[in-house]
Amino acid sequence: DSAKPLRGRKVLVTAGPTHEPIDPVRYIANRSSGKQGYAIADALAELGADVTLISGPTRLDASQNVTLRAVESAQEMLVACEETLPVDAAVFAAAVADWRVNNEASQKIKKQAGALPDLSLTENPDILATISGSVSNRPALVVGFAAETENIVENGKAKLDKKGCDWIVANDVSASTGTFGGEENQVFLLKGASTESWPKQTKQGVARTLGAHISDFFQSKST
Ligand code: PMT
Question: What positions does the entry give for CTP binding (predicted)?
Answer without folding.
Answer: 98, 108, 125-128, 145, 159, 163
